[in-house]
Design a protein that fits this description.
Largest sheet: 5 strands, mixed
Bound molecules: NADPH dihydro-nicotinamide-adenine-dinucleotide phosphate
Structural class: alpha/beta
Strand content: 5-15%
Oligomer: single chain
Order of helices and strands: HHHHEEEHEHEHHEHEEEHHEEHEHEHHHH
Shape: globular
Distance between the termini: 26 Å
Number of domains: 2
CATH architecture of the largest domain: 3-Layer(aba) Sandwich
Radius of gyration: 21 Å
Strand order of the largest sheet: 1-2-4-3-5
């Protein structure tokens, strides 16, 4: 790492020693910025500022369960960087949520949002609330209580949250209803809304579709495609489901899916009918992925809780799309993919591959797409939802999908050309980090580094 960047990194570590996920995200970006800083040392102060959130809001979220007992969760919103637009980023409800995880996500979001080419700053938020096993009424009461505090810190021109792990259309709906009541206005303050009250077509599909569009672009640089490819996908939530759908559209064969209890391996491939079953299972019945194995008679492997998929990446595939959570693939698992002849990995989740895994892909010449480039389609389409809300218009499905695809093609081109310009051809990590950084850095500098 460049000397000046090392100094910034050391100070990040010593200021918040108990934030390993945040350190990991910062280290990856600062490593990429070396060549930029050598050419333009004027950006050193920008880097010092960019690693510090503009504002962190932490609050109490009390709610009553169905037995009338009180629970108290923690709510957060990290407003990381507003230099190029209103803060934008999802809300995560998961028991693992803490400041380290949200700061890493908010930090990544700054560069991702910049890469989309849309005027979006970076933010992230959420709670350590676990929606699993809660009744409908409990989830509703929690969402309402969460918004009872968050509403005063957000706004259509200030900060526009969306969904993430544990926050889908249902939760966004409950939070939007509470915001509307408290603020006494109907504005596009959240994205991922239902179609009947200001949502955008293609928003649910956008992150998964976008990841596959990006991977398709990357594969085409080596004259390869999804056609006939076997694809490992982790997760079975929003991103995984629609990544699988787009893989099928492009003639590929998804063979795995997972949740935090285990993974299925369907060597015949997950076709449209089986995927419809998964969507119903996960989105309506809120069941576990092992039920798929019973339904279709395929292999199911139980895994340890917490992000270790114990064998999913050992399956023989051409392409891997990690779409579950951070650090779900380590160096050894990456090596298994390499040994099995995998040619490309695109991150649908945020930071699912550890630094050792990424190093392994680069060493062995695999195509590797970092999440901040390949999963940017979700936030980009949220940006399109904001535009439609401001215009008070709804664009048709084809129009939104066309814009999403165009944005993903542009992000691919921009990351690829930037990597080449800075002497790291084929390194999408460096290309995305540098391209995302430059736009924000220029804006921060022009605004006097406040
Ligand atoms: P969902 O909650 O819809 O799905 C998450 C999936 O990952 C579930 O199958 C879940 O299993 C699994 N999972 C979550 N935590 C763990 C864990 N610790 N170990 C093993 N499996 C786990 O979330 P999304 O699909 O929306 O998000 C997935 C990833 O994509 C996240 O990293 C998110 O930040 C990222 N992302 C999402 C975007 C979006 O638009 N939704 C945009 C950009 C990035 P289980 O149900 O058992 O918990």
């Amino acid at each position: 790492m460049n000397e000046a960047m090392k100094e910034v990194y050391d100070s990040v570590q010593s200021r918040d020693p108990d934030q390993p996920e945040f350190h990991q995200a910062v280290e990856e970006v600062l490593e990429s910025l070396g060549p930029v800083i050598e050419k333009q040392p004027k950006y050193i102060p920008v880097v010092k500022a960019i690693v510090e959130p503009e504002r962190i809001i932490q609050f109490r979220v009390p709610w009553y369960d169905d037995n009338g007992d009180l629970h108290v969760n923690r709510g957060f919103r990290i407003q990381m960087n507003g230099a190029i637009g209103p803060y934008k980023g999802g809300l995560r409800f998961h028991p693992s949520v803490n400041q380290s995880i949200l700061k890493f996500l908010a930090f990544e979001q700054v560069f991702k949002n910049s890469l989309t080419g849309l005027p979006l700053g970076g933010g992230k938020g959420g709670s350590d609330f676990d929606p699993k096993g809660k009744s409908e009424a409990e989830v509703r009461r929690f969402c309402q209580s969460f918004m009872m505090e968050l509403w005063r810190h957000i706004g259509a021109d200030l900060d526009v949250p969306a969904g993430d792990i544990g926050v889908g259309g249902r939760e966004v709906g409950y939070m939007f209803g509470m915001y509307r009541k408290l603020a006494n206005e109907f504005t596009g303050v959240l994205t991922g809304k239902g179609m009947s009250y200001g949502g955008s077509l293609i928003r649910p599909e956008a992150t998964g579709y976008g990841t596959v569009y990006f991977a398709r672009e990357m594969l085409s640089t080596k004259d390869k495609s999804f056609h006939g490819a076997r694809v490992a996908i982790s997760g079975s939530g929003n991103v995984a489901q629609f990544a699988a759908e787009k893989v099928i559209d492009l003639g590929g064969k998804p063979v795995t899916l997972s949740d935090s209890s285990g993974f299925i391996y369907d060597s015949e491939g997950i076709d449209r009918q089986k995927l419809a079953y998964v969507m119903d299972l996960k989105n309506n019945r809120r069941g576990r992925i092992k039920e798929y194995a019973k339904e279709y008679g395929c292999e199911y492997t139980e895994t340890e809780p917490e992000p270790n998929l114990n064998g999913l990446w050992g399956v023989e595939v051409d392409i891997a799309l990690p779409c579950a959570t951070q650090n779900e693939m380590n160096g050894e698992e990456a090596k298994m993919l390499v040994d099995n002849g995998c040619v490309a990995v695109a991150e649908g989740a945020n930071m699912p591959c550890t630094p050792e895994a990424i190093e392994c892909f680069h060493q062995h010449g695999l195509l590797f797409a970092p999440g901040k480039a390949s999963n940017a389609g979700g936030v980009a389409t949220s940006g399109l939802e904001m535009s439609q809300n401001s215009l008070r218009l709804n664009w048709p499905r084809e129009e939104v999908d066309r814009r999403l695809e165009e944005i993903m093609v542009n992000i691919h081109r921009n990351s690829s050309e930037t990597a080449k310009k800075y002497g790291m051809e084929g390194n999408y990590v460096a290309g995305a980090n540098i391209a995302g950084f430059l736009k924000v850095a220029e804006s921060m500098e022009a605004q006097g580094l406040l």
